[in-house]
UniProtKB/TrEMBL annotation:
The active site is at T35, T115. Residues 26-217 form the L-asparaginase N-terminal domain. Its EC number is 3.5.1.1. It comes from Acinetobacter terrestris. PANTHER family: 60 KDA LYSOPHOSPHOLIPASE (PTHR11707:SF28), L-ASPARAGINASE (PTHR11707). Keywords: Hydrolase, Signal. PROSITE patterns: ASN_GLN_ASE_1, ASN_GLN_ASE_2, ASN_GLN_ASE_3. It is an enzyme of class 3 (hydrolase). This is Type II asparaginase. Belongs to the asparaginase 1 family. One of its GO terms (molecular function) is asparaginase activity. Residues 241-350 form the Asparaginase/glutaminase C-terminal domain. The keyword Hydrolase applies.
């Protein structure tokens, strides 16, 4: 039964039971696969295993303590390793979460996810799901079969966060290794240790023994303040956006090939301040004139790309990705392209999200 119904019931019956007996929120765990649902051949295989094996019911049963935090139920949305997530899977997750947050008896949602593209799904949800209910994306760096597996505590903390009333209207979170990160600026920084995630702007808070401790808020637009709406996206594909990685001695061929393949925007993961090599500039300008948006991000993990600094963006009609890394810039560009083809309008979105 729902929290509010029970509270009313206990009051109207004049029961002297503590309200905390009934005060549990309802949290749904949407399982999508990843290492948190992986299985290795032995307990010493902390890095060699197959992702996406364990079904959601077993994940929940392995951490019975979560039922003390909330009334937790599970849904198996997907069972994949997250490097294989395409627009189709991304939209499946977003539609599922959108459907759940609309239910009055759901107070929070946890998504168990592979860590490779966890940051992308989290950012996409923050852009497309209109809600103030906590949405938490969680993974693990070791499979459940390994010694000192990190998944169970991460799941426990994720449920605690999704059930926390003080987590409402703060955005979509990534919970890893006790840290509460904002979806927009968290990124996977280490591919082998349990402290695999970080944000250049720091964590929003930390979660210890099922309790939240907050330190900052997100300054950009998300969830209810987002102009993007999952319900306006038809079919299983977003406008095609691809990334080209900058390096010395580059050839322009990759940009041309992606444009030929139908890319509507190309994220240039440039060196330094999103810089573009001299021999690449004419190709990017040619593609821009053909209607392909050129968006300058950086291969440098920290800082942000300054408009009109290394390149005359106003003159070329290019966009800068601000502090979004290339993979997040790719998602914002795809959503932006569902609304406009105007580079100035796309630039506005990159400042605001
Ligand atoms: N390749 C895995 C995945 O992203 C890694 C992980 O979950 O940690 O699904």
């Amino acid at each position: 039964m729902m929290k509010k119904t029970l509270t009313v019931l206990s009051l109207s019956l004049g029961l002297l039971l503590p309200l905390s007996t009934f005060a549990k929120n309802n949290v749904v765990v949407v399982a999508t696969g990843g290492t948190i649902a992986g299985a290795g051949a032995s307990s010493t295989n902390s890095a060699t295993y197959t992702a996406a094996k364990v079904p959601v019911d077993d994940l929940l049963k392995a951490v019975p303590q979560i039922q003390n935090l909330a009334n937790v139920t599970g849904v198996q949305a997907l069972q994949v390793a997250s490097e294989s997530i395409t627009d189709k899977e991304l939209l499946t997750i977003a539609r599922k979460v959108n459907e759940l947050v609309k239910k009055p008896d759901v107070n929070g949602v946890v998504i168990t996810h592979g860590t490779d593209t966890l940051e992308e799904t989290a950012y996409f949800l923050s852009l497309t799901v209109h809600t103030d209910k906590p949405i938490v994306v969680v993974g693990s760096m070791r499979p459940p079969s390994a010694l000192s597996a990190d998944g169970p505590l991460n799941l426990y903390s994720a449920v605690a966060l999704a059930a926390a009333d003080n987590a409402k209207a703060k955005g979509v979170f990534v919970l890893m290794n006790d840290d509460i990160f904002a979806a927009r600026d968290v990124t996977k920084t280490i591919n082998i240790h349990t402290n695999g995630f970080a944000s250049q702007w720091g964590a929003l808070g930390t979660l210890v023994e099922g309790k939240t401790y907050w330190f900052r808020n997100v300054a950009k637009r998300f969830n209810n303040a987002s102009e993007f709406n999952i319900e306006n996206i038809q079919g299983d594909a977003l406008p095609l956006v691809q990334i080209v990685y900058g390096s010395g001695n580059m050839l322009p061929d990759a940009y041309k090939a992606y444009a030929k393949a139908g890319a509507k925007a190309i994220i240039h993961a440039g060196t330094g301040n999103g810089s573009v090599a001299k021999n690449i500039v004419p190709t990017l300008n040619e593609l821009q004139k053909q209607g392909v948006q050129i968006i300058r991000s950086s291969r440098v993990p920290q800082g942000f790309v300054l408009r009109n600094a290394e390149q005359p963006d106003d003159q070329y009609n290019w966009v800068v990705a601000h502090d979004l890394n290339p993979q997040k810039a790719k998602l914002l560009a795809a959503l932006a392209l569902t609304k406009t083809r105007d580079a100035k309008e796309i630039q506005r979105m990159f400042w605001e999200y």
